[in-house]
Amino acid sequence: MINIDAQIYRYAKGWFKRADTLADLRVLYGNRNLIAPEHITDDDIVLMLVELAARHTLGTPEQAVHFFQSILPNRFFPGPPESIHEAIIDACLHAIRYVDHKDIEGELAEADYSLLPSSKPGRDNNNA
């Protein structure tokens, strides 16, 4: 069975070129849920990513503490303050990026480059 979140996992793992993270995730969330991207809120994206990240990172109290510490704005990269949404999205994408493929339930479909461009030139659905 194909995992419904395959494109989100692939996005977190760097298969797609990142332009505007929120806009990119709206496209992927919309495709996943058959909703037009303009109807998707930042909260929708945050809740989806927290659910995915929680499946893999909140197994022990130590893992939970580490995850929530990673959400603190500017925790790892000093710079201009992030919104809480940006901080949570960044932390979730970071956690999801390092999930081992064998720990993901179901099959990961090939990256769908009709949704977002590839992060590598020349890669498309025919030669991924």
Explain the overall architecture.
There is one protein chain. The protein is mainly alpha-helical and 128 residues long. The protein has one domain. 48% of the residues lie in helices and 0% in strands. The protein is built from 5 helices and no strands. The protein has helices at residues 6-12, 21-33, 42-57, 61-71, 84-97. Helix 4 packs across helix 5 (84-97). The longest helix is centred in the middle third of the chain and has 16 residues, at 42-57. The protein starts with 5 loop residues before the first helix and ends in a 31-residue tail after the last helix. The mean pLDDT is 83.
Number of domains: 1
| Element string (H = helix, E = strand) | HHHHH
Radius of gyration: 15 Å
Distance between the termini: 20 Å
Structural class: mainly alpha
What's the pLDDT, averaged over the residues?
83
Q: What portion of residues is helical?
A: 40-55%
The main β sheet shows up as:
none
Count of DSSP-assigned helices:
5
Give keywords:
128 residues
Produce a short descriptive summary.
It is built from five helices and no strands.
Give a topology summary.
Blueprint: H1 6-12, H2 21-33, H3 42-57, H4 61-71, H5 84-97
